[in-house]
Amino acid sequence: MxxxxxxxxxxxxxxxxxxxxxxxxxxxxxxxxxxFRHRHxxxxxxxxxxxxxxxxxxxxxxxxxxxxxxxxxxxxxALTLALIGRAVLAAELRPGGWTDPGQAVQLLLSLAxxxxxxxxHPRLGTVSEPVTSLGERAAGLLPARSYLYELGAxxxxxxxxxxxxxxxxxxxxxxxxxxxxxxxLGVLAVEPVDFSPYGRRPYAGRNSVEITxxxxxxxxxxxxxxxxxCSATMVDGLCVFCGCGPVxxxxxxxxxxxxxxxxSTGTATTGTGVSA
Length: 276
Known about the structure:
Region (Disordered): 255-276
Order of helices and strands: EEHEHEHHEHEEEHEEHE
Mean pLDDT: 80
Structural class: alpha/beta
Low-confidence stretches: 247-272
Number of strands: 11
């Protein structure tokens, strides 16, 4: 199974691709592996890239109808999704790790539900999410003032307040942290990651830095029937890759922002090779 992230550089076996190019997902996979050798491709994506990713997935399936692409729009930025993807791929190699793509989806969703995506802003001038006040933007012009924002939160907070975590572990930052950022994170042990997000990011400006608190990969039971079409373990009664579900089953309605798009709406199309 492959994991690919839009608006992301590569990271530890996870492929990054350009969300703005209609054939970028197809070209990224073919450039690395030639014609499709992996039947399942999992694409966790920041929510603002979901439409472009669905279009790219249809291009890839049109080129190779045998491939199955599962799209998971999640409330995380590219750094968090790439780190989660790397952890999922590493878990396959451990004793008791996942053995099919549907189980990998279960692990990825578990990590996503327990991880955090933050952004450090040295300036707020070009940030559109969340909406900031004129006073905050003016204060952001001061050299000593910077802000933190957690995706999904209603507002930014002064960076000097810190991210409000009970745990100092699991923190990662894209690139070497600036002294001002390190001071804002205080005693947290931060691991720099050789990673470059790019493209449209409504929650980030040109100099903003993505920060992740990555949850630990814990052992868990792998449950669920297998998809009749692609054999992946179903998640909440639906195959993330094919959109297939048990015959006669009602549309699943799981709660929460972290449910896959095809699962939360119950509208995935069966048999296209794209589920989202």
